[in-house]
Amino acid sequence: MMRKNILKIQVSIFLVVLITLSSFAQEKIKTSLIISNDTNQYYKELYRPQFHFSPEKKWMNDPNGMLFYKGTYHLFYQYYPEDIVWGPMHWGHATSPDLIHWQHKKIALYPDSLGLIFSGSAVMDVNNTSGLGTKENPPMIAIFTYHNMEFEKAGKVNTQTQGLAYSLDEGETWKKYEGNPIINNFVLRDFRDPKVFWNENSKIWNLVLVAGDRAQFYTSKNLINWNLESEFGQNSGAHGGVWECPDLFKLKVEGTQEEKWVLIVSINPGAPNGGSATQYFVGDFDGKSFTTSQKETKWVDYGTDNYAGVTYNDVPNGERIFLGWMSNWNYARNTPTTNWRSAMTLPRTLSLSTIKGDYVLQSKPVSQFNQQLTTEFSKEKIKIKKGSEKTLNYPKFNQSQIQFKAENKNLKLVFSNIENDSLVLNYDAQKQQFSIDRRQSGKVDFEKSFGEKTHTTPTPNLISKSIDFQIILDWSSIEIFLNGGIYTLTEQIFPNQPYTKLTIQSIDNQEINNLKIDAIKRIWQ
Ligand code: FRU
């Protein structure tokens, strides 16, 4: 049903969009469709993300090896080319000039006798410190985890080691380093996900990986021989599950000259709303050890579907760009898609600010995302009387961005469709809490934990008089950014039809300003 409906909408070249704003009323959608003979069905399967990265076919999980070099953003990713469930891991590869439009490339790394290719990272060894290329033609270096299935089956603990591969043609073809593994392990079951980067302060390569319930920090002069310098985390942060996919980078605190280091660590299970999520620590790093005075656990995203996210190496102007896997290990294998499974979050620029004397990591869509937007509706002021509601009808909420400023008072937003699916966002100003309820949002019964409960986050940092809402919906996801990403919630949704109605309700007198609905251009041709 939804597929037909989406297709109808997609193939219409003269879609007349009638957006109606009605008080206390539920109006029927008014669209007139003139069907063209557009036969391009590429990336138009049911629930296929239209402006998020997803693999052409088969299974994907974590983003890997994110690197910017000579005008190209490289994205590698955990990939199983044989099925739409997790299996023997490869590194898939795609490139982009702008992080929005992607070109699929050949599989970069295949499993070998040392194991499957788990998550990791990549750098350009511009000075050929590894000796694996030349100064004139420096190597691109990937450092990843080998997971040895034979060892696992034999009940051995030392299944995970770190390997290196290099490319002398900017990521087109790869060779494994002959001396692999470069970091061995004889005792730990969980020892993985190396993130390597050049440390400009100490002029040395750094690497952070996770070892069970902690992160380990290494140094190297040549990317091949690594020294373990320190550990962090055994007694810090959340420990509901194993630590995974760490990252470490420096950010300037907004509006100051102060620089802090941010350590990101994914954890599964143990997320605030169940299953997988990513926590962060703000502190200092002297090139060898990470220290922090942070007491409480902080999360990058409070939704259920932003996992294993890490940041790009070498982006110009020091911009720190983050990409996460838009799923959750609780139900990642069961989502109702057909020939592919999973997508990445939108690429997000990270920044660090202080609110009430405490560091807060903010994330918002990269600025180049704005190129994809066309404003289809705007309204300067909408007044909602105590206990009442306003309804916006728009046929393509599932490929749109909704933005507005609301008073810092209670507010409820309900996206719905003619199938009676509803996705409910609720801000409770008294409780200082934001929630997303996808229990009736469409297909939810493919796995119990998907539609089991409302997901909430405390919002003590929403202290301004009015709150900026930025809500981005694709065919099977919603991303919510409050006050420029002070709070972010990312979730998958599988509506039976696209949402066509947005009801804004308030139990207080509420004034909404600068409301805008933008259509989002699809990225796949
Ligand atoms: C995180 C993760 C990583 C591992 C990879 C395997 O989602 O479990 O720790 O390297 O996925 O695919």
Describe this structure in words.
The protein contains two helices and 37 strands. It is mainly beta and 525 residues long. The strands form eight sheets. The protein has a seven-stranded antiparallel β-sheet, with no helix packed on it. Strands 26-37-28-33-34-35 form a six-stranded antiparallel β-sheet, with no helix packed on it. A hairpin with a 5-residue loop joins β29 and β30 (422-428). The two termini are 24 Å apart. The structure holds beta-D-fructofuranose. The site of beta-D-fructofuranose has 12 residues, from β4, β8, β12 and β16.
The ligands found in this model are:
beta-D-fructofuranose
Mean pLDDT: 93
Helix fraction bin: under 10%
* Global structural class: mainly beta
Strand content: over 45%
Number of strands: 37
Shape: globular
Radius of gyration: 23 Å
The N- to C-terminal Cα distance equals: 24 Å
- Low-pLDDT runs of 5+ residues are 7-36
Largest sheet: 7 strands, antiparallel
How many helical stretches? 2
Strand order of the largest sheet: 2-27-36-29-30-31-32
Which key terms come to mind for this protein?
six-stranded antiparallel sheet; 2 helices; 525 residues; binds beta-D-fructofuranose; 37 strands; mainly beta; 47% strand; seven-stranded antiparallel sheet
Concise overview:
Helices cover 3% and strands 47% of the residues.
SSE topology:
Blueprint: H1 2-11, E1 16-18, E2 20-23, E3 30-32, E4 58-69, E5 72-80, E6 90-96, E7 103-104, E8 116-124, E9 140-147, H2 149-153, E10 160-167, E11 175-176, E12 191-199, E13 204-211, E14 214-220, E15 227-232, E16 242-252, E17 259-268, E18 277-285, E19 290-291, E20 298-299, E21 307-311, E22 321-325, E23 340-341, E24 348-355, E25 358-365, E26 373-384, E27 388-393, E28 400-407, E29 411-416, E30 422-428, E31 433-440, E32 455-458, E33 466-474, E34 477-482, E35 487-492, E36 501-506, E37 510-520
Parallel strand pairs: 4-23
Antiparallel strand pairs: 1-3, 2-27, 4-5, 5-6, 6-7, 8-9, 9-10, 10-11, 12-13, 13-14, 14-15, 16-17, 17-18, 18-19, 18-20, 21-22, 22-24, 24-25, 26-37, 27-36, 28-33, 28-37, 29-30, 29-36, 30-31, 31-32, 33-34, 34-35
The protein binds beta-D-fructofuranose (FRU).
Beta-D-fructofuranose is lined by residues 61-62, 78, 89, 118-119, 145, 192-193, 244-245, 308.
